[in-house]
Amino acid sequence: GDALHRAALALQVDAAELLGTPSLSFEALDREQLQLAFVFCNESLCQMKEAELSALQHLLQERVLAANVAACHLAFAGFEAFPPDKTWLVARFKVPEPLLHLRKAVWRACREFGVAYPDALWLPCIKVGRFRGPKGQVDKITSLDCLAQYSPTTPARALGLTVVCGEHHGLACDEWARALSFEQGNPLDTGTP
């Protein structure tokens, strides 16, 4: 997460100069906000009864354990302005097959419980911040080569799945984090790539 956050902070200091686009600024996300979205769930997740939520948690834990992805590493593929409006700067990653299979299994489990949005092409990326300025200025970004010096030099390691949800009375995030950790039995490292 440090390399990605340094890139975001450099842009936040002087996006117009780095990118050669006047009237353009950049708002970096906090380091804690850097996360790779795996499966998008709808608002039904936060409205589930405790028994259903527990059943979903156990099903997801089974999928995580069966996937055996503790050794999966994600290779950095580059920075890009995320389509369609290109206002988000994202760090793209190449994901190994076992993690792709786990993503599909998790999406299917969430779909069984009626909490997953319809599946779409997954673009493994981490949002690092947002471009601010007139639409015409954002469209003028032709290269992000200025960020090459901030590219992660080692592959990121997936540590587990995190459920991000609005307030839910039965959603104990620490319990979910332990259940969905890729390294069962080890203390959970909450670092991000």
Features:
single chain; alpha+beta; 5-stranded antiparallel sheet; elongated
Describe it for me?
Helix content is 33%, strand content 16%. The protein contains 5 helices and 5 strands. The chain has helices at 2-19, 50-67, 97-112, 135-139, 173-179; strands spanning 25-28, 73-82, 88-94, 125-132, 156-157. Helix 2 (50-67) runs antiparallel to helix 3. The longest helix is centred in the first third of the chain and has 18 residues, at 2-19. The model is unreliable at 185-193 (pLDDT under 50).
How do the helices and strands line up, and which of them pair or pack?
Blueprint: H1 2-19, E1 25-28, H2 50-67, E2 73-82, E3 88-94, H3 97-112, E4 125-132, H4 135-139, E5 156-157, H5 173-179
Antiparallel strand pairs: 1-4, 2-3, 2-5, 3-4
Helix pairs in contact: 2-3
Short synopsis of the structure:
The chain is α+β, with helices and mostly antiparallel strands and 193 residues long.
Regions with little confidence, pLDDT below 50 for 5+ residues: 185-193
Shape descriptor reads: elongated
Q: What would the average pLDDT be, to the nearest integer? A: 84
Q: Which structural class best describes the helix and strand composition?
A: alpha+beta
**Termini gap:** 4 Å
Based on DSSP secondary structure assignment, what is the total number of beta strands? Answer: 5
Portion in strands: 15-25%
What is the share of helical residues? 25-40%
Which strand order does the major sheet show? 1-4-3-2-5
Reported for the largest beta sheet, the result is:
5 strands, antiparallel
* Number of H- or I-type helical stretches: 5
Elements, N to C (H/E): HEHEEHEHEH
Radius of gyration: 18 Å
